[in-house]
Amino acid sequence: MAEVALYPWLVGAVLAVAVLVFVLLFWIDAPYGRHARTGWGPSLPGGLGWLLMEAPALFVFLFIYGLGRYRAELVPQVLLVLWCLHYGTRATVDPFLRRTGGRPLPVVVVAMGASFNVLNAYLNARWISGLHRYPGGWLTEPWVVAGLGLFLVGWGLNQHSDGVLRRLRAPGESGYRIPHGGLHRWVASPNYLAEIVEWGGWALATASPAGLAFFVFSIANLAPRARAHLRWYRSTFPDYPPGRRALIPGVW
């Protein structure tokens, strides 16, 4: 099957998986981090697991992007920088900054995450550098400017929120405490909210089917996780602020 014919089916597969993930994660807490538990098969050390899971999102994207005929044009290069801004830190820095790096990560979780990242990186890189040619004035369109701004705001909030969580623990500690500051004042998972904002901005800026599918998948994956986090915080800490919501301040 020709790539142009296969591509929409792969985007559809991401959307189908998003629906499945959304339903399953409302019933089953993904078994890593604070929700880690036995019974999910062999595990890897946390830092190594995160590295193996996230690295394909960066390196597969770079490889596929490099094959694109429009790779040297301005708009694809700007979008490349945005992708690398997120996954450059996620794949090469974050695994080594995690204070819970020794917490095991099930191999099945690593395999599923890495598989999704390979497909998602291919779909997004192929679209922006090879399957679609952006006009020269694309970056000045209002919705594109808004998308770029949303991505950068989301990335900054994501970094800040993760930093708050890391600073809760002294070196060698792996326990949990109630976080405060920034968006943590209003929601249990501000890093997830920020990431959804990022990929919403990406979908808007790229105006691509792959970007939209990734945005939908991000919501499907992170919203149930945020709900599980809020439930865990409330059951673990009797003094957890009652006004905090799971993901959307004052709403949900």
Description:
With 252 residues, this protein is mostly helical. The protein folds into two domains: 41-138, no CATH class; 141-171 and 178-252, no CATH class. Helices cover 65% and strands 2% of the residues. α2 (46-67) runs antiparallel to α3, α2 runs parallel beside α5 (107-131) and α7 packs antiparallel against α8 (209-236). The relative contact order is 0.15. The model has no long low-confidence stretch (mean pLDDT 94).
SSE layout and pairing:
Layout: H1 3-25, E1 43-44, H2 46-67, H3 74-92, H4 94-97, E2 105-106, H5 107-131, H6 142-167, H7 190-206, H8 209-236
Helix pairs in contact: 1-5, 1-8, 2-3, 2-5, 6-7, 7-8
Features:
8 helices; 252 residues; mainly alpha; 2 strands
Structural class: mainly alpha
How are helices and strands ordered from N to C?
HEHHHEHHHH
Strand order of the largest sheet: 1-2
- The tally of beta strands, per DSSP, is 2
Give the CA-based shape. globular
In whole angstroms, the N-to-C terminal distance is 44 Å
Integer average pLDDT: 94
Please compute the radius of gyration using only Cα atoms: 18 Å
Low-confidence stretches: none
Number of helices: 8
Characterize the quaternary organization of these chains. single chain
What's the structural domain tally? 2
Largest sheet properties: 2 strands, antiparallel
- Range of strand content: under 5%
Helix content: 55-70%
